Records
---
Amino acid sequence: MKKKVYIKTFGCQMNENDSEKMLWLLSEEYEPVKAPSEADLILINTCSVREKPEYKVHSEVGRFKHLKKRKPHLILGITGCVAQQKGEALVKRFPFVDIVLGTQEFYRIKEAIKLVKKGKGPVVWTELKDSFNLPFVPPVRKLCSGVKAYVTIMQGCDNFCTYCIVPYVRGREVSRPPEEILKEVETLASYGIKEVMLLGQNVNSYGKKEKGFPSFAELLKMVAQIEGIWRVRFTTSHPKDLSDELIEVIAKEPKVCKHLHLPLQAGSNRVLKRMNRKYTLEDYLQKVEKLKKLCPEIALTTDIIVGFPGETEKDFEETLKALEKIRYHEIFSFKYSDRPFTAAQKFEDKVPEEEKEKRLDAVHKVQERITQEIYQSYVGKEVEVLVEGRSKKDPSMFMGRTSTNVIVNFIAALEEELIGTLVKVRVTSAGKHSLKGEFEEVIKS
Ligand code: 5AD
Ligand code: SF4
């Protein structure tokens, strides 16, 4: 019988993908379970991008202390960004932790377990290299539903936005060779995967540092040509690297989804400059304008930080104005939080917590209205939905997404075969963050 592994993943899609990879690497010996109390191995894949998720990791690790007492053979590992950031300090603070693997070391998980079993723990590996060696991981069906899969194409970041810890915990930008990426996508297609999401901290600067690599736009076209793949998505893009060439590929290549996540962070040029974002609001608007002109159906989403040090009421209003102007489908908004190693941590003019709270509320209010207006505009229309599975809330319904990345739940008197097909759905109503509809017909299967 296989041993049991419980894995808890915090943070971004890159972490989700790394967790999938670890599960696959362990799959000969371990099978995943949903309850930590059943596990022989517990892995916490951590995020340190903001204070809150980092804090959550501490409470999570503490929670497993008593389990470890009851079950001495239980192995406890911490991976990901907090592991990278804290390294040895984690085992000092939590002496019952057996394994700490950084962002480029997680694929050595089996080796680490072996050492712990031999009594050679704790194992702490946190080296950051200029290249990375990513194992190919076939889709772990339990995690990706067998319809879509992540493909990491680059990692790390060279931008050093003044609030951001990522360059310190994910290292410098490194791109994977295009042949490897294409082979991986072809293999995924042969497993029946229909949609791939290309991942990187900064996907659109793919290949800029490596000699002879295609540009991101060229890579996107190559991936879109792979037979069996119907949809291609990618995240995250930096506005400064959104080239005309890329805008054209998004607009013209039918398999490239009509959705772009383009973090704006703030609407004030003064704040953007202090954030070291390397664009002005006008640069950003110009690119968005170009994209909307060539691709009117494009859906935009973004990240916003409120209360960056020195952000005045007037600066903040520029952010609200930008939201009204750009009209994002959805936004992810955060209160600024100090992160170790970053430049902004040392800025003196911090915004008080209550003020950040107030600004976050204001952002939510404005955006909720815009999202509602946009979602309402889908009602009565027919949309193409790639069916991912059953709706979590109501398993009598199917769930999928439009090319614009809007979640659609719909009723269909059909069997499971619908999962993995592209269907036409008539939208009947709009919820807060999803649409409801009725199945019309299968377009592609
Ligand atoms: N404080 C608040 N939000 C942050 N983000 C990154 N660093 C911080 C920070 N120190 C946000 C940015 C980024 C998203 C992933 O997290 O908006 O795009
Ligand atoms: Fe962080 Fe900026 Fe790099 Fe994004 S581009 S990962 S926000 S440093």
---
Amino acid sequence: MNAATPTWPAEFAARYRDRGWWRGETFGGMLRERAAAHPDRIAIVDGDRRLTYRDLDERADRLAAGLLARGIAKGDRVVLQLPNTAEFFDVVFALFRIGALPVFALPAHRETEIAYFCAFAEAVAYVIPDVHEGFDHRELAAKVRASTPTLRHVLVVGDPGEHTALADVTAPPVEIADPPAPGDLAFLQLSGGSTGVPKLIPRTHDDYIYSLRGSNEICAVDADSVYLCALPAAHNFPLSSPGTLGALYAGARVVLCPRPSPDVAFALIERERVTITGIVPPLALAWTEAAQRGGVDLSSLRVLLVGGAKFSEEAARRIRPVFDCTLQQVFGMAEGLVNYTRLDDPEEIVVTTQGRPISPDDEIRIVDDADVDLPVGATGHLLTRGPYTIRGYWNAPEHNAKSFTADGFYRTGDVVRAIASGHLVVEGRAKDQINRGGEKVAAEEVENHILAHPSVHDVAIVAVPDPYLGERTCAYVILREGAAPLKPVAIRRFVRERGVAGYKVPDHVEFVDTFPYTGVGKVSKKDLRAAIAAGLAGR
Ligand code: OOB
């Protein structure tokens, strides 16, 4: 890492090693070891395809050799935008072996986001499906390639069109001259963000593998587990909590679910005897309703993890009776800290809290607006530091100065309280972000898109409560003087046509004459939210 990307100070790194959290493992080595220990066990199930640990190991080796032959080298960034398919793991492990860094884009991202990731990360390659959910990623890739000088390769799973087929990149395995060390970066994850553009989260082999090991222990994942990857594989929750990588670390089986709807997911749970999976609260609601209708055998399921957004107590109470399995609430963040309720926690704790940290070395501070620590039980801002929480974003010194304290605590932007047992209850959020059922929308990012509309004078994006998603987005728009009236759909279309992920398009648009302003002349989102709740914003 370089000066612009802070890492753990030497004394912290030494402590995390001494205590056995960082054990000097790498992802490349981990797969090699599992493949040697049980080559014929199934690692990945993707539809009718079943890859053993030996298969996955060999595929990673051949692809690593092919990528090296094309000049992709240690430290290079590769934007990865693949759905839940076996190739996702081929590419990830091939890059891990080389020490090139995947940048984990989501399938929903579109041209604006992808062009930004490629440019900001100075990516040398972009890996895509041909067509996914009706969207042709090859066209998008052609545009991004034309505008990104560093981008030398577009690799396509399926029909490559004008680009290169991933299947043609393989080569006979070679010895990797300079493999990554355990303390090196493994990948860049995306931040949910609250700023104009997403930030990149640098995670190392050592720190991430520790979070997997800790998660496996807490969720009782072992070699006999079967993990269903129902959420987009690139997201931190299904990747590591305990997720697909946790399952592979344990030598368990990963079943890839192309879509998380109950019909698709339940059929796979039944067919593959899935024991554990992780979903966001809106899906938990849909799954609970569907499970109550019966007709499928979900008896193999032992643990249902729910997180990414606040899970209501009422919905949480229904999980055990309906699924006859244990609920684990997960409150995590791609920046690091992950909290789980424990398998042996009393039901009251499981349904009313969002869990406690993985590590005894996770430091938690709950502070007021002036960074003063509050007494236990008081609600305040959550700050955290620990063996798998980053000390800074990738190449973002200005953000880092705001997002981290001088002594390295990450400002999560979450407002929480702790109970005596150390379990945290998420009470709200101080960051300017909307949590749309686990999908994070940075208000400023969408506001900037809307401000580009020639008729728009000002805009504020706020969350409005929603029974299903928890929150939806509402754009309050002030038009320029003299501008012709617009319909909400015109704003929504405008945002979509700027090439952003669909979940960022505002759910509602309201035209108003003025905003409530704070004392210093900033739009008061607090007042705006209150006005929405009272049904009379700006009118
Ligand atoms: C997970 O990661 P991100 O990076 O997409 O989002 C993190 C943010 C948190 O700071 C918090 O605001 C919110 O998502 N959040 C929750 C929550 N879990 C996450 N808010 C309330 N209750 C929860 N249970 O979302 C993520 C990463 C790893 C595991 C699970 C979730």
